Amino acid sequence: MPASPSLDKHTEFARCLESNKVETLAPFHWLALAFKDIARAPMLSLIYGLVFTIIPASIMYLVFYSGTHLVILPAAVAFALIGPAFASGLYDVAWELEKGHKPTLIHSLKSMFRNPAGEWGFAILLMVIMIVWMRLAALIHALYPNVPDPTFEQLSAFLTLGSIVGGVLMAVVFAISAFTPQIMMERRVDIMTAVVSSIHAVKTNAHAMFVWGVLIVGLVIIGFATGAAGFIVIMPLLSYASWHGYIAIIKTKKARGYE
C-alpha cells in the first residue's frame, strides 16, 4: 500500500544531506574564489561590507567607552553568533554569479525571506545560544579578582574557565552555522535538516573545517586590528568563501559545474 503524502513529508523531516570529502587546504581555494566574486560584484560587496562593519565597530566602541576589557570576550562570542544570521544576502550574490546572472541588491535582500520559517528558527536558535552565553559570562565574571590590579596568576581561573566555555560555545555555533544558512536558502528545507547536515559535514571534513575555522579567526583578528575597517572586505570575503565551501561539501543529485 503506497504511503500517503503526509507520511512522505514527515519522513523527510530532519534528514541528513550527504557530504563530499574535501582536501585539508580546500578553504584556501574557497578564499581565492571569493576574491573573484568580490571583483565581479564590487559595489554589492562594498555595501554589505559597510553594513557588516557596523557590528564589530560597535563592539570596539563598547570596549573603549566601557573602560573595561571584560566585555571583549562576551562581545567576540556575540559577534560570532550574529554574523552567520546576516550573511544570506551575500550568499545570494555568489549564487547569482554561479547561475550567470547579474546580482542585485533587491534580489539579495529578498533572499533573506526565501525560507522564512527556517531562517527565523535559525535566528532564534542563535539568540538562545547567545542568551545562554551571556548568562554563563555573568557567572564566570564572579571569578574575576576583586582587587585593583590583579596579577596574571589571580586572573588565571577567570581566563581559563572563560576561554574554555567561550571556545566550546563558538565550536558549537561553528558546527551548526557552517552550512545551515546556505542549505536553508537554496534547498528550503526545515531547520533541523539544515543543522544536522551542517554538523555532519563539519564532522566529515574535520581537518578542512579546522583550517577554515583558523582562517576565520585570523581574518577576524585582522579586522579588529584595523579598527574594524578591514571588515569591509573581510566579511564579504568570508561569506563568499562560505558559499563555495557549501558547494564543495554538500552533495547534490545533479552536478553543478561551479566551484
Structure description:
It comes from Pseudoalteromonas citrea. This is DUF2189 domain-containing protein. Keywords: Membrane, Transmembrane, Transmembrane helix. The chain has 259 residues and is mostly helical. The protein has one domain (23-143, 155-247). Helix content is 72%, strand content 0%. It is globular. The termini are far apart. Residues 1-11 have low confidence and may be disordered.
Rg, Cα atoms, Å: 20 Å
Task: Please report which band the strand proportion falls in: under 5%, 5-15%, 15-25%, 25-35%, 35-45% or over 45%.
Answer: under 5%
Order of helices and strands: HHHHHHHHHHHH
Question: Using DSSP, what is the number of strands?
Answer: 0
In short:
It comes from Pseudoalteromonas citrea. The chain has 259 residues and is mainly alpha-helical.
Please describe the structure with a list of short key phrases separated by commas or semicolons:
single chain; 259 residues; mainly alpha; 12 helices; globular
Describe the secondary-structure layout.
Elements: H1 5-11, H2 26-40, H3 42-66, H4 72-82, H5 88-98, H6 105-110, H7 116-140, H8 152-177, H9 180-187, H10 191-204, H11 206-225, H12 231-249
